């Protein structure tokens, strides 16, 4: 449409240059002090699904977002769909539908960019056993095009952070399982990724080494302020490392929150006991008396009752007056194990 306003052309030019400036703005710091990297979610997953050839529905439509700097856990037993999810996020498994973005880059349509901002430590070793730790990291830095002086500094820092400085000249074949895993994590960080994926980082390690490795990851996290997505079937690991945890069961997220919030849902204390025979009658009796809520559950012969506002003494009195034959009665604080068992136990019961 034509206009007689003599200033309109100038106004349009101003509008165009403002729009260009807008597009360039991601490189600039915005007024609230957050730059574009800080604003864009590190990971955005929407309705993501994977059905393998042959029909196994490994991931059945999951959604989650991970903020920059967050440590996010995918927690579930073997076969839950954790590795498939990590595979899709790291572009090694093609999603059947839905989308996943890393720092804004779509893993399906922009796989190179998505890979460029992330690193992964898989369960299987990828370091070269014949080479020294130092050579492994040097080769990786060259592959990623990290400039030599920066790579030298970065490798020194990382090796120090994971406690391997004394071992760097030795062939990796002589490392223990825990040392090798720490080297793999350092290797993954050489490229300064925005998102680090750790797939079952402590699997196969003995308990002491597991704790050492977890310490190393916690230390790195504090230093690097990076985003970590970690899969695990160890509940204590999720509780120790993660800001938020998605509990995965049979390809679906059944709960997603901070470990504290997940635990708070079960109240401050749990009563647990064993039953000889069926657990149905004692559970029903405690429910009738209002001691047990819907979140009480049984696994095998063991009954778990989150007490919420009730005192343990009320529960014991109820057990006594109902003449329930129970043994090994104890109270304790809830763990993520209870959260998981409660959620998945309920589902298994539903399906039965
Ligand atoms: P998790 O990492 O939680 O143990 P996975 O993602 O490895 O779970 O597996 C989820 C399901 O998908 C399992 O039933 C597994 O057997 C199946 N699965 C995994 N990889 C493949 C594949 N390449 N082909 C067919 N089925 C697979």
Description of the molecule:
The chain contains 13 helices and 14 strands. The N terminus and C terminus are likely disordered. The longest helix is centred in the middle third of the chain and has 18 residues. Helix content is about 40%, strand content about 25%. By secondary structure, the chain is α/β, with parallel strands linked by helices. It starts with 7 loop residues before the first helix and ends with a helix. The strands form three sheets. It has a six-stranded mixed beta sheet with strand order 6-7-8-3-9-10, with helices on both faces. The protein folds into three domains: about 30 residues, no CATH class; about 220 residues, Rossmann fold (3-Layer(aba) Sandwich); about 70 residues, Alpha-Beta Plaits (2-Layer Sandwich). It binds adenosine-5'-diphosphate. The site of adenosine-5'-diphosphate (ADP) has 12 residues, from α3.
List keywords for this structure.
alpha/beta, Rossmann fold, Alpha-Beta Plaits, 3 domains, 6-stranded mixed β-sheet, binds adenosine-5'-diphosphate
Task: Please outline the helices and strands.
Layout: H1 8-24, H2 36-39, E1 43-51, E2 57-66, E3 71-75, H3 82-89, E4 97-102, E5 105-106, H4 111-116, E6 118-121, H5 133-143, H6 148-161, H7 177-189, E7 195-199, H8 207-224, E8 227-232, H9 235-241, E9 244-249, E10 252-257, H10 259-264, E11 270-275, H11 280-288, E12 297-299, E13 302-306, H12 312-321, E14 326-332, H13 336-351
Bound molecules: adenosine-5'-diphosphate (ADP).
């Amino acid at each position: 449409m034509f206009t007689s306003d003599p200033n309109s052309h100038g106004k349009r030019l101003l509008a165009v240059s403002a729009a260009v400036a807008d597009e360039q703005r991601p490189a600039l710091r915005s007024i609230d002090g957050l730059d574009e990297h800080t604003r864009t979610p590190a990971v955005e997953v929407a309705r993501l699904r994977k059905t393998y050839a042959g029909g196994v529905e490994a991931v059945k439509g999951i959604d989650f977002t991970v903020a920059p700097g967050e440590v996010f856990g995918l927690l579930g037993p073997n076969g839950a769909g954790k590795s498939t999810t990590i595979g899709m996020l790291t572009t090694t498994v093609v999603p059947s539908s839905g989308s996943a973005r890393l720092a804004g880059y779509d893993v399906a349509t922009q796989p190179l960019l998505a890979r460029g901002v992330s690193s992964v430590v898989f369960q299987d070793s990828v370091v070269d056993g014949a080479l020294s730790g130092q050579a492994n990291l040097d080769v990786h830095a060259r592959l990623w095009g990290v400039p030599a002086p920066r790579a030298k500094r970065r490798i020194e820092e990382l090796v120090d952070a994971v406690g391997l400085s004394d071992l760097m000249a030795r062939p990796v074949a002589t490392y223990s399982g825990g040392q090798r895993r720490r080297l793999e994590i350092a290797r993954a960080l050489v490229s300064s990724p925005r998102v680090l994926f750790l797939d079952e980082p402590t699997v196969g390690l003995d308990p002491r080494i597991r704790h050492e490795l977890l310490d190393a990851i916690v230390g790195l996290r504090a230093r690097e302020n990076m985003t970590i997505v970690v899969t695990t079937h160890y509940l204590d690991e999720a509780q120790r490392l993660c800001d938020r945890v998605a509990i995965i069961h049979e390809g679906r997220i059944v709960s997603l929150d901070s470990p504290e919030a997940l635990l708070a849902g079960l109240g401050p204390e749990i009563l647990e006991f064993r039953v000889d025979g069926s657990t149905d009658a004692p559970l029903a009796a405690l429910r009738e008396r209002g001691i047990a809520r819907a979140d009480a559950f049984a696994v095998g012969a063991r009954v778990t009752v989150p007490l919420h506002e009730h005192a343990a003494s009320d529960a014991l009195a109820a057990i006594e007056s109902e003449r329930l034959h129970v043994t090994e009665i104890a109270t304790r604080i809830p763990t993520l194990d209870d959260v998981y068992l409660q959620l998945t136990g309920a589902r298994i019961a539903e399906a039965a």
